[in-house]
Amino acid sequence: MLICINVTISDKQLSEEKDILDFIEDDYEGVIINCNSLPDASNLFAAALQSSLSYWKYMGKKGVWLRILKEQADLVPVALKARFCYHHAEPGYVMLTYWIPDGPCLLPSTGTHQIGVGAFVINNQEQVLVVKEKKGPSWCSGIWKIPTGFINKSEDIFSGAIREVKEETGIETSFLEVVAFRHAHQVIFDKSDILFICLLKPLTFDVSIDTTEIEDAMWMPLDEFLNQQVHKEDQLSGKIINICMNMFENNHRGFKVEQLTSKLDNQITHLYSLALEASPKEQSPESIR
């Protein structure tokens, strides 16, 4: 007589019976592999990776994130052979991903944009803080321009603008407003590029240049700055300077910055927006008079 017995194996038992890589679950039905517990030997890693992928598929997981440290570089070909894909690289590691379900991968892509800042700084004598760069595209060689640069990782837009001015010219400033931003595509490494133009208030006035990047810097009379050929011929440059001047003369409103906390990630963030004017009900009797 044939007797059938149904045996239920728990998920925990299944993971213990197989050689499953150490991992944690993310918030999107995916898994993040613990890079610090990867086997040193390529053959052991290959076997554990295949067992893990089978287990995660059984569990209904979707995306798999695999960080391989610099000292574990021998494991990268093994992961690629298992059909993992490159996602991004940083100093010290490379990130690979695997999409388990059939159909297109829905994992977010790596960073697609680089962020830069330009600082328009003008003093009470209507002199603009300008720099002449040592390096750059041939079209801007010898041109006096506003300080520009890329913001650092985990740096805010307003902080980046203040830092760039300080590094290039030695001038201390305070942030006033975001004047405008320019969005371009297929720039460095085919990434898109966003440049935020900021209006800053000078707090000091003695110029001291960074000779590694800047050939020269100075306070230039506004008329002389505007009469440069580049501002007459280039629509974008001319438009930006025009907006900056209207901001300086209080004929145009830009974006102020406000520090807020988000419950989505419990992080402090900065919101750039037009300053709201107080309604008649919110105004004091003195301000109404």
Question: Can you walk through the features of this model?
Answer:
- By secondary structure, this protein is α+β, with helices and mostly antiparallel strands.
- The chain has helices spanning 11-17, 42-58, 76-81, 157-169, 222-226, 229-233, 235-248, 285-288, and strands spanning 23-25, 31-33, 63-69, 85-90, 93-99, 113-121, 127-133, 148-150, 173-184, 192-202, 214-221, 256-262, 267-273.
- The protein is built from eight helices and 13 strands.
- The strands form four sheets. The protein has a five-stranded mixed beta sheet.
- Strand 12 (256-262) and strand 13 (267-273) form a beta hairpin.
Summarize the helices and strands and which ones pair or pack.
Elements: H1 11-17, E1 23-25, E2 31-33, H2 42-58, E3 63-69, H3 76-81, E4 85-90, E5 93-99, E6 113-121, E7 127-133, E8 148-150, H4 157-169, E9 173-184, E10 192-202, E11 214-221, H5 222-226, H6 229-233, H7 235-248, E12 256-262, E13 267-273, H8 285-288
Parallel strand pairs: 2-3, 6-10
Antiparallel strand pairs: 1-2, 3-5, 4-5, 6-8, 7-11, 9-10, 12-13
